[in-house]
Amino acid sequence: MTSDNGVETIADELLDQALAERRALVQLCLYALDRASSGVVERIEEGLSSIGVVAMRVDGQRFDPAQHEAGGTVPTDDMSLLGLVAETEVPGFCDRGRVLRAPIVTVYTPR
């Protein structure tokens, strides 16, 4: 029984270590992505997506301060656009549904 507990403990420790290392690598990729050229950004996003980390571009969606960070506004006379995201300035990212970073967006406001 002791050896089973020991094996489980070692397995749990290795899993915890692997998850911590994965989180660190994802954060490093996000850091690099913010500083990369468009071709490199595309490749990093593809790689992240293959492990369940997806970019969040919310253009056209209703602005939600609980999920989005407002980086600026765009005045408009079109009442149908008020409160919608005009542009995603910096994409957000989520890891299997858990938000890692909220997108920074520009929001339509009344002129």
TrEMBL record:
Molecular function (Gene Ontology), one example: protein-folding chaperone binding
InterPro entries: GrpE, GrpE_head
One GO BP annotation of this record: protein folding
Pfam families in UniProt: GrpE (PF01025)
Keywords: Chaperone
Protein name, entry field: Nucleotide exchange factor GrpE
Protein species of origin: Lentzea guizhouensis
Phylogenetic placement of the source organism: Bacteria, Bacillati, Actinomycetota, Actinomycetes, Pseudonocardiales
